[in-house]
Amino acid sequence: MEIKRHGSQTCSKAPPEGFNGKIRGDPLFSPTNPVRANGTSFTFEPGGRTTWHTHPLDLTPLVSAGSGRVQR
């Protein structure tokens, strides 16, 4: 894993096929072989949400402000 200073990487607009509304994604870390894990911090503007989808390799959401809903 390579640790990078916050804000040193380019943030991006979340892809429309997985999100509705204004959502920004800031990369935290990228996968390096043999690990497939990566991390992204998403910021949701009011009204922004994800569309219903699954993560075949699992996902651990961490809500740092506001509230979040998940279903298992």
Describe this protein's structure.
The protein is mainly β. It is 0% helix and 26% strand. It contains no helices and 5 strands. It has strands at residues 12-13, 19-20, 23-29, 39-44, 49-50.
Keywords:
72 residues; mainly beta; two-stranded antiparallel sheet
Q: Count of helical segments?
A: 0
Q: Summarize model confidence as the mean pLDDT.
A: 81
Q: Strand arrangement, largest sheet?
A: 1-3-4
Quaternary status: single chain
Percent strand equals 25-35%
Which value, in Å, is the CA radius of gyration?
13 Å
Characterize the overall form. Answer: globular
Q: From the helix content, strand content and strand pairing, which structural class follows?
A: mainly beta
Given as residue ranges, the uncertain stretches (5+ residues, pLDDT < 50) are none
| Helical amount | under 10%
Q: Name the helix and strand elements from N-terminus to C-terminus, one letter apiece.
A: EEEEE
Number of strands: 5
Terminal CA distance reads: 29 Å
Q: How does the major sheet shape up?
A: 3 strands, antiparallel
